[in-house]
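LOG
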Amino acid sequence: MSDRRITALLAIMAVLASGCALPETREASPMASAVTFQDPWARAADSGMTAVFGTLANAGDRDVRLVGGESPAAGLVEIHEIATDHGASVMRPKQGGIGIAADGTHELVPGGDHLMLMDLRQPLRPGTDVAVTLTFEDGSTLPVTAQVRDFAGGNEEYSPSGHKHG
């Protein structure tokens, strides 16, 4: 085979190979990169447990799921909800975490979904801040700082005994 034919054959093979290449795959960005926690705040507490509230906003083009968290101020961080059980409001862990729709928001509010800081390691005083790291379904994390506030609330009792609200 002549050099010209080999060169032409190699050129044709290169063109065919580039036309048959698989499309570039783009990895999905971490869930946490699309989420902001707007106006986060925590209820002041001397000991035991307390709650963190605010608005989770997902600016991404896919749904995300918050599944947990951690804080140096607490031994444990859980996602909780208030549900009705036999006519009484009961606080309990929220199974499956919190889904936040693409381009949507989810409110964490007293008497509704919230983050529980359990086994507080120190008192949380009004006017101070508490660090919390949110964990999403894909393992990505979002560090946030919540302002600690006095809040009497709607008779919620964030204490280890019973998890009941009245």
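LOG (cont.) second protein
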Amino acid sequence: MSVLGIDIGGSGIKGAPVDLVAGDLAADRYRLETPQPATVRGVVDTVGLVARQFADAGGATAGDRGAGIDAIGITFPGVVVDGVTRTAANVDKGWLDAPAADLFAEAVGRPVTVVNDADAAGIAEMRFGAGRGRRGTTIMLTFGTGIGSALFLDGRLVPNTELGHLELHGVDAELRASDRARDVEDLSWPQWAHRVQRYLQHVEMLFQPGLIIIGGGVSKKADRFLPHIELRTPVVPAVLKNNAGIIGAALAAAEAASERS
């Protein structure tokens, strides 16, 4: 099965075919800038352009939208229920209650599976990365424009948790502890780590997880902040780093395709 994963981020929309056995990209990823503002039409059109870069994967005829790809998975930075985007905290408000799966399917020329971006990253990490083989409660947290979360119990996803919106100091935690907050406020890594520590302690108190996985772009720089964080719960960086969303989207699409067949 040839499966394409596409990851919608705050700054870039990137995609690649995925090797579902190895848990890695099967070709170099292709990336375009996320439209600013990230309107529904702009994002949908950009996703279509990314998908068309791989239209002839698997030897199919180029030019046929989506040809050669058996399934396509797409991440979205918000709650996704039955292909409809229910929240739009860090994207254009036009995404509220948008029929995302239908819109993307029209753009790429075939059915798609749409999944929350942190859930996708978590799915990949639980299958191929830091959470592989873990039992009990595992939480993946992605630090970027906001804070995304994915909650797993014995390896099974509890979808659409929004732990970045837990209240800390009277505001959403992601307004103080996201990577964007670090950048906007020009925080040093130790200063930012202090905020992340307070947030992680709150998550730990509420869920008592056996493992916390840190994902998003900051996972590549874990040595700069993780040494400043002390929790009872083990805290580890994501293994798949920025490719986790693409891989997880592809895994979700392959599972959905299997259920349809």
